[in-house]
Amino acid sequence: MTELKEELKGKIIEVLNLEDVASTDIQDDDALFGEGLGLDSIDALELIVLMDKDYGIKLSDPKNGKAIFESITTMASYISQNRTK
Amino acid sequence: MSEKVYINGIGALSSQGQWHHDLFREAKELSRAVTPVNAPSYKGLIAPGMLRRMSSGVKMGIYASQQALDEASISIPEAIITGTGLGCLIDSEKFLHGVLDNQEEFLTPTAFIQSTHNTVAAQIALRLGCNGYNFTYVHRSVSFESALLDALMQLQDDQASTVLVGGVDEISPHTYRLLQLAGQIKQNDRNERVKNSESIGVNYAEGATFFTLSTLRTQTSYAQLVDLTLQHELNKEEVTVLVADFMARQDRDHQLIDALVVGINGDCQYDGYYDEFSRLFDNIPVLYYKHLTGQYDTASAFGLAVAARVLKEQEIPEVLYWNSDRATTGLRNILVYNQFNGKDHSLTLVRVC
């Protein structure tokens, strides 16, 4: 799980072009949206594509997104349980 | 009645850095096939959340436009009009590569949103909170001049009193490789300057140049924008007709041209157009600028900035002289001529104010 979390941090920084953020700046339980990393709705779309492309997970119900994308921990947990690649 | 139109503010980013007082004294001639913009830090001007999504062209456009507005002490213009030859290429390429690489799946939204040609004008308006007329012209090498013509007509017809107008183009790796393959950009090993060029193609670059135009003359006014004309295609012999027709419609005061600003870019195949043009005017200074900015579709906007600056300062920086004729009297009227590959010809007349 630790390895997956670090992988996710790197991918998020790359995909969302977070120029001034390093992996070490993101804590596992930091909020990704709002007060935490400050991501927004366009970033959410990018993360949905990332889940599909890299882990084979299709998020068909947007209502689940809020809980899944709460933090690196919640994302990693959902991916490890549902990944198809 | 047709209003007079003044250039009250200029902002630019080019391979020489930003528009500033010592720009021409510090400028270095380009000799590489491709030279990217010498960009300043955008932090402080653009919010970090927006900055991370913006490509080079959008950032250049926002920076140069703000510089032009600041110089004219305008916070929100009544209209924003831009020209771009190839648009936001970096995001266009990113999106299209995504389509190909991922078999038309997994298309991400950011590159698509930012890839449209009007992204620069839109982002400037969003940032300023400007709800006025917002338009982008995409006509290759007369993209900027098309935007300028729109701005001029809006101001002359009293549709607006202050207009922000500019041109912006960015380099993107794939398109630039294709242009080099097509011979439009010089090969990497040529290392030729505009004046000693012996090959076809140009030294390519990127940049943004913006102007705050107004019907009000102010203390910051550079020059009066008098008139311009566009012509898609000409052979070299027809340059004479283009110029004669254009000059015939000017007042007598505007017919005495004191200097020329030409878009000579070192392409041996097409620089002959500028020879034809210059031959029509005897013993006056001919100025060039693409040896400093490189060629891109809206580089001619920098040519207008050069003309305006010379009229304001009444001084021609040595680095701009193409020929050996020097100005002997005051500079009142300057004619700017540009074309690319024998197409997209434009003449712009500016006058001291």
Question: Which features does this protein show?
Answer:
heterodimer, A: about 80 residues, mainly alpha, Non-ribosomal Peptide Synthetase Peptidyl Carrier Protein, Chain A, about 50% helix, globular, B: about 350 residues, alpha/beta, Peroxisomal Thiolase, Chain A, domain 1, 2 domains, two-stranded parallel sheet, 12 helices, 13 strands
Description:
The complex is a heterodimer of chains A (85) and B (353). Chain A is mainly α and 85 residues long. Chain A has 4 helices and no strands. The longest helix of chain A has 15 residues, at 41-55. With 353 residues, chain B is of the alpha/beta class. Chain B folds into 2 domains: 5-214, 3-Layer(aba) Sandwich (Peroxisomal Thiolase, Chain A, domain 1); 223-351, Thiolase/Chalcone synthase (Peroxisomal Thiolase, Chain A, domain 1, 3-Layer(aba) Sandwich), CATH 3.40.47. In chain B, the strands form 2 sheets. In chain B, strands 1, 2, 4, 5, 6, 8, 9, 10, 11, 12 and 13 form an 11-stranded mixed β-sheet that branches. In chain B, strands 3-7 form a two-stranded parallel ribbon. In chain B, helix 3 crosses helix 6. Chain B is globular. Chain A binds chain B through residues 15-20, 38, 40, 42, 45-46, 49, 52-53, and chain B through 48-49, 51-53, 102, 105-110, 113.
Distance N terminus to C terminus of chain A?
Answer: 15 Å
Calculate the mean pLDDT score of chain B and round it: 95
User: Given the C-alpha coordinates, what overall shape of chain B results?
Assistant: globular
Largest sheet of chain A: none
CATH-derived topology of the largest domain in chain B? Peroxisomal Thiolase, Chain A, domain 1
CA gyration radius of chain A, whole angstroms = 12 Å
Number of helices of chain A: 4
